[in-house]
Amino acid sequence: MTEEKEQVPHYDVYWQEEPYYYPSPGFVGQANCSDPDIFDRFTLDKFPECFREFADLLHWDKYWHTTFDSSDAPSWKWFVGGKLNACYNCVDRHLAQYRNKTAIHFVPESETARIEHITYQELYRRVNELAAVLRDDIGLKAGDRVTLHLPMTPELPITMLACARLGVIHSEVFAGFSGRACGDRIWDSESAVLITMDSYYFNGERLDHKIKADEAVETAIKQGQRVNKVLIWRRHPGTYSSPTPWVEGRDFFLDEMVRKRKGQLIEPVSMPAEEILFLMYTSGSTGRPKGCQHSIGGYLSYVAWMSRHVQDIHPEDVYWCMADIGWITGHSFIVYGPLALAASTVIFEGVSTYPDAGRPWRVAEELGVNIFHTSPIAIRALRKAGADEPEKYNYQFKHMTTVGEPIEPEVWRWYYHVVGKGRAVVVDTWWQTENGGVLCSTIPGIAPMKPGSTGPGVPGIHPVIFDDAGNEISPEDGKAGNICIRNPWPGSFQTIWKNREGYVKTYYERYCKNPESTDWRDWPYMTGDAALMAPDGYVRILGRIEDVIEVAGHRLGTNEIESGALNVSEVAEAAVVAVIDDDNKGYVPHLYISLRPGVAPSAALEDKISEAIVDGVGEIARPARIILVPDMPKTRSGKLMRRVLASISNYHDVGDVTTLDNPAIVETIRKQVQD
Ligand code: PRX
Predict the structure, then answer these.
(1) What is the per-residue pLDDT across 589-622, written as a single tens digit (0 to 9) for each?
(2) Cβ 345 vs Cβ 334: under 8 Å
(3) Cα–Cα distance between 489 and 302 in angstroms, integer?
(4) C-alpha distances in Å from residue 307, one per residue of 302, 428, 430, 652
(5) Residue 7 confidence (pLDDT) above 50
(6) Three-state secondary-structure class, residue 72
(7) Residue 431 CA to ligand 1 centre (angstroms)
(8) Statement: residue 11 has pLDDT above 80
(9) pLDDT band at 3 (very low <50, low <70, confident <90, very high)
(10) CA distance 386 to 543
(11) Which of 252-261, 552-561, 598-607, 666-675 shows the highest mean pLDDT?
(12) DSSP character for 331?
């Protein structure tokens, strides 16, 4: 067995584990979950009934008869026979106790504009009026798909909730995406209605957004999907502020339509738990976007439980997740999870570093935010642009989250000591669009944190690391491999919309023990990430399997090398890529670096970075070339685009980069490297 394992390639890991950080007694004392025995309730032998506890956080119109149905493996069904309404669970049921409590704090981008505080009562009224328009004026009904292309204003969650109230499936496309990208998703989801906004504020500018609606409709029509109606929220109700002309008979102002439905109440439609709540297209950078299909009962119960136990949200907290609702993080942890728990959730229209890197801390101070949730890319950007800003403001976080990419320990420590002022717990939550909610994290009231590692599987999630041949790698082996989840869970997507074959192939085929089986034990879920599990069960994510680089026969995770570079205080961001080395017929690493503002590039600094990597990882990872760039290519969802950098270093075509957050940087870097 040992021999067999050694023949199978694995990932080499050199990076040392970090020491634990412990939550303060004050945090533990108030935590929703401080019971260390919680994991006993979620051992594999208690699957699937252990998940009843998740569903019990919700109001059910009709209780389910079957907790888990695997007859259509691997499209799992949860809480079968149950009926509920997601909007009722996020709004109506809180009215008795929290009618006058803020549900949504809306922070417009302009600091001179007033922050809006929308109570649960007001949210209820606005959702009902919109549901009346959608049902009675537009004719939408349960099961129809509607594409939303809305920016970060309250109209976005209001629209999602109004759809959910009617059983209509929403498919929100990130507002920063082009009209064409939106049109492709309209076509794929077969939406006959598009809901958008005339304009919004971004980085100090007012952007014309309506223009994208016209492009989206045209793209969808070309592919055979007619869009009968475009419903337009106006950023400032009553004033149309887009230069793009209006199309008679197709375009309607939603703010005008809801005014006519003033005070109308719409009964929430009681939906089978297994029906679809929404589609969320993955932010995948290559190939056709995949519509992840999320259920009503399973998804909502999962995000409610995670919001309570991992985010530690109590109704009295002010909770700010600084993601965009156009991504799964926003769906789960700005809208559905927090609202299911009657929290006050912040919606921030702006960019975290505009007008300066103190903005998030001013918002936190003004609103009394005590739970803060963001991504490594935002943390790096705030550290780069204003490392000393947080201490200028008098806010007090009890809890902070990071999600979206591995976080380098050095960046983690800045987040913990400077942003959290050494008092807030940090949870590093690892999961994916497909998963609905968190897979690995510490439960903050019961487990210490470890910089650079996400936690163990959360209760109910049983991760396993396989090598390429399907052998399990034990935590004692100290080796990395492909991280999979042994068991299904309620928040997982049901399938890729209209593409079951792709669903099975991408996520299950590689490690499936028997494709004919309806036993869940035969269907581990493959995440596509490379990871290492330490003997304490904590998981370190090394990056996407496709980003792993092979140097002199060793397979190295990108995060490990980049983390070494980030130990150099002048470095703001690092990205490593594999470059074909013609002399040795193998690969060598190229390291791209962006420096903190005010730091001058020099050969000495490059040497220091190289040495830091050699120190952390070993000589094998010494970069063949270090390239200091003004900025990194990033996706709109905040991920470094190593693929683009690899193409530049390898003199390959960079492909379509128009959907990047900063496409212009690609040409700048290309010239720098190739000319
Ligand atoms: O590679 C992992 C990385 O992001 C991927 C999922 O991206 P997406 O579907 O856009 O969802 C992001 C928000 C849930 C994963 O396969 N990733 C996400 N969170 C972490 C992470 N990598 C390391 N640590 C994390 N905390």
Answers:
(1) 999 999 998 899 999 999 999 999 888 777 878 9
(2) yes
(3) 8
(4) 9, 14, 14, 43
(5) no
(6) coil
(7) 5
(8) no
(9) very low
(10) 27
(11) 252-261
(12) I
Task: Note if the bond before 355 is cis, omega within 30 degrees.
Answer: yes
- pLDDT score, position 138: 98
122 three-state secondary structure: helix
pLDDT at position 283, please?
Answer: 58
Distance CA 206, CA 28 (A): 44
Mean pLDDT to the nearest integer, 108-131: 97
Ligand 1 pocket, residues with Cβ under 6 angstroms: 282-283, 328-329, 403-406, 428-433, 454, 527-529, 541, 544, 637
First to last CA, the chain: 51
* Per-residue pLDDT band at 297 (split at 50, 70, 90): very high
- Residue 663 in contact with residue 670, Cβ under 8 Å? no
- 46 CB-near residues (< 8 Å, 6+ apart): none
CA 639 – ligand 1 centroid, Å: 9
Find the range with the poorest average confidence among 175-184, 325-334, 665-674: 175-184
Rg (CA), the chain: 24
Q: What is the DSSP string of 164-207?
A: HHHTPEEEE--TTS-HHHHHHHHHHHT-SEEEEESEEEETTEEE
Q: What are the DSSP calls for 240-299, one per residue?
A: ---SSPP-TTTEEEHHHHHHHTTT---PPP-EETTSEEEEEE---SSSS--EEEEESHHH
Of 67, 72, 80, which Cα lies nearest the Cα of 519? 72
For residue 468, the CA-to-ligand 1 centroid distance in Å is: 21
CA of 414 to the centre of ligand 1 (A): 20
Instruction: Give the Cα separation of 445 and 107 in Å (integer).
Output: 30
Q: How far is CA 462 from CA 22, 44, 457, in A?
A: 24, 8, 6
Residues 362/303, Cβ–Cβ less than 8 Å: no
Q: What is the pLDDT of residues 381-429, one digit of tens each?
A: 999 999 999 999 999 999 999 999 999 999 999 999 999 999 999 999 9
**Helix crossing, 179-189 with 210-222: angle to 10°?**
50
459-472: pLDDT as tens digits: 999 999 999 899 99
Both tokens assigned to 233? 């929220």
Q: Which atom of ligand 1 is nearest to the CA of 435?
A: 14
Q: CA–CA separation, 319 vs 88, rounded Å?
A: 21
Residue 259 to residues 128, 152, 228, 230, 572, Cα–Cα distance (Å): 12, 22, 22, 18, 49
pLDDT of 633 strictly over 50: yes
Ligand 1 center–CA 375 separation, angstroms? 10
- Indicate the top mutation candidate among 177, 402, 529 to test ligand 1's pocket, ranked by most ligand atoms within 8 A of CB: 529
Q: Does an H or E element contain 576, and which? A: strand 571-581
DSSP sequence for 599-641: PPP-HHHHHHHHHHHHHHT-GGG--SEEEE-SS--BBTTS-B-
182, with CB counted inside 10 A (0-12, 13-18, 19+), is: buried
